[in-house]
Design brief:
Keywords: ATP-binding, Cell inner membrane, Cell membrane, Membrane, Nucleotide-binding, Translocase, Transport
Radius of gyration: 25 Å
Strand content: 15-25%
Main location: membrane
Subcellular location: Cell membrane
GO biological process, one term: peptide transport
Largest sheet: 8 strands, mixed
Protein name: ABC transporter ATP-binding protein
Structural class: alpha/beta
């Protein structure tokens, strides 16, 4: 029996520039208790199709269809279908506590008392794997990690008691360990509740891990459909084959040669907030022309470090130097203006919706001092158009507003804006996490070509170790604000020394049915030592713990270019080694 049946769905947008066909006679369905997936690159029309089914498209959208039905009846959005979006923080009310948001949803769909709704809310939070639900219900969304917020969004969707849940890129912004948790959670919810699931994603690994039937979308059309086995093992369309090649591609991209000159150095940098979140005792150095990676899960401190480097936050202690000059209150502004630029994770949030793409880039040039800041408006416009073309857009796109671009196209604008000032250090904070595989490859090739030409250095912050392996020369792995492991990227990713690094590598979903559906060891929903407490922060989740792990914080043990914060590599705790002993992985 078909829970959702969509036949010949078409969507046309009416804009000031004319009419644009977004969907052209799209048909798909989801069986009762089944999991179907729609996969395609950014801008292919996936999200437009879901919003059309939900009746949430803007007034300038003309929607036509032969049928949009749930169990043979006309769709009633909010009752028959619930939706889980990519950005859980934006779909949760930041001023309302978690418990109230869930209970209000329950009472809107069910005749019950406040107490009954509260009890049901706690049951739902427990169902989605959140410990201490009574405590969490008293918290606001910003007090939860990204993974916990996504679980809360799933709990709210379940509160509607829908026949179908649409999950639109539900794991894209999450790190590998939390992503694996959400995948297993969604699979378990379908098995335990009988609710059908429609997964929308550009990630072939997520589709492989969840879906039994797959629809491939390109340019607003369904170009191929079939069982997961048919799509992954015998695809017919060249576009589908390309998606699989891009997802499976693990070849290392050529990077520019790094210089011996140290561009940026951090020494024992610490920044701790009242919530005990932050970073502690971070030391690393980035050389000129080098792509240096910083990996870790949500809440590990990656973004805090990026904000310190760009001057948005001031460290509590430690030293940061740029080309040997200490960055303090007197030198930060001059050095960072133009020399250190940042590309953010959320391109829509970092772009002014009232400025066109061309105006956004022109404003970036106008803000600079010196020659570029003295450009005429016509020169700035020409430079902006050149940068848009460099990142794969067109000169005509300079007159379009952010809302008229897809997510991948908006990220291209953000990258162009950062690069237009010709920086010496580019900080990419999860800049590619929301992009499909093909777009990621294009942007990476762009960054590498600029790096080789201008010897630009890059701090590449990401939770995607497969992506990091392609592009970076060295890597540091963060866990709960501390460096777990540092070394050559190829060595760390092929032979991890720290148990947490190994977990991250094993948790990433693979675009292969057998590997993706195999149960993988992942972190529980809430684990690890309390931030700032005594002991190794990874002790509770580690399979190699010793007594000392709960009472002492491990130091950084160095062996050549490798550094790891694990007592397994300490002679004090594991015994003295013979002279000339070559350290290898102890896990």
């Amino acid at each position: 029996m078909k829970v959702l049946d969509v036949q010949n769905l078409s969507v046309q947008y009416h804009t000031g520039q004319g009419h644009r066909q977004a969907l052209d006679e799209v048909s798909f369905s989801v069986e009762k208790g089944g999991i179907a997936g729609i996969v395609g690159e950014s801008g292919s029309g996936k999200s437009t199709a879901m919003l059309a089914v939900m009746g949430l498209l803007a007034e300038n959208a003309d929607v036509t269809a032969d049928a949009i039905a749930v169990c043979g009846q006309q769709v009633v959005p909010g009752r028959d279908i619930a939706m889980v979006l990519q950005d859980s923080l934006s779909c949760l009310n930041p001023t309302v506590k978690i418990g109230r948001q869930i209970t209000e949803t329950i009472r809107a769909h069910k005749n019950c008392t406040r107490q009954e709704a509260r009890e049901r809310a706690e049951e739902l939070l427990d169902l989605v794997g959140i410990r201490n639900p009574a405590q969490r219900m008293r918290q606001y969304p910003f007090e939860l990690s990204g993974g916990m917020r996504q679980r809360t969004a799933i709990a709210i969707a379940l509160a509607c008691e829908p026949k179908l849940i649409i999950a639109d890129e539900p794991t894209t912004a999450l790190d590998a360990a939390v992503q694996a948790q959400i995948i297993l959670l969604l699979r378990r919810i379908v098995q335990d509740t009988g609710t059908s699931l429609l997964v929308v994603s550009h990630d072939m690994g997520v589709i492989a891990a969840l879906c039994s039937r797959v629809y491939v979308m390109q340019s607003g059309r369904i170009i191929e459909q079939g069982t997961a086995e048919e799509i992954f093992y015998s695809p017919q369309q060249e576009y589908t084959k390309k998606l699989l090649r891009d997802a499976r591609g693990i070849q290392r991209l050529r990077t520019g040669e790094k210089d011996s000159e140290v561009l940026l150095r951090l020494e024992h940098v610490t920044k701790v907030f009242d919530t005990k979140e932050g970073i502690r005792d971070i030391s690393l150095e980035i050389r000129k022309g080098e792509i240096y990676a910083l990996a870790g899960e949500s809440g590990s401190g990656k973004t805090t470090l990026a904000r310190i480097l760009t001057g948005l936050l001031k460290p509590d202690s430690g030293r940061i130097s740029y080309k040997g000059e200490t960055l303090d209150a007197g030198t930060q502004a001059g050095i960072r203006q133009g020399k250190i630029q940042m590309v953010f994770q959320d391109p829509y949030g970092s772009l002014n919706p009232c400025l066109t793409a061309g105006q956004a880039l022109s404003e970036a040039l106008k803000a600079l001092s010196g020659t570029q800041g003295g450009m005429t408006p016509r020169e700035r416009r020409r430079k902006a158009e050149e940068m848009l073309c460099m990142v794969g857009l067109s000169a005509e796109d300079a007159d379009r507003y952010p809302e008229e671009f897809s997510g991948g196209e908006r990220q291209r604008i953000g990258i162009a804006r950062a690069l237009i000032s010709e920086p010496e250090l580019l900080i990419c904070d999860e800049a590619l996490s929301a992009l499909d595989a093909a777009t990621r490859s294009q942007i990476l090739e762009l960054l590498l070509s600029i790096q080789k030409k201008r010897k630009i250095a890059c701090l590449f912050i990401s939770h995607d170790l497969a992506l990091i392996r392609k592009i970076s020369s060295r890597i540091s792995v963060l866990y709960q604000g501390r460096l777990a492991e540092t070394g050559d990227t190829r060595e760390v990713c092929s032979d991890p020394w720290h148990p947490y690094t190994k977990l991250l590598l094993n948790a990433a979903p693979q675009p292969d049915l057998l590997k993706a559906r195999r149960t993988r060891p992942v972190l529980p929903a809430e684990t690890g030592q309390e931030k700032g407490s005594r002991g190794c922060p990874f002790a509770e989740a580690c399979g190699y713990t010793m007594k000392c792990c709960y009472n002492e914080v491990p130091g950084s043990y160095s062996f050549g270019s490798r550094k790891t914060a694990c007592f397994l590599y300490s002679e004090e705790h594991t015994g003295k080694r013979a002279e000339g002993y070559q350290m290898t992985s102890q896990i």
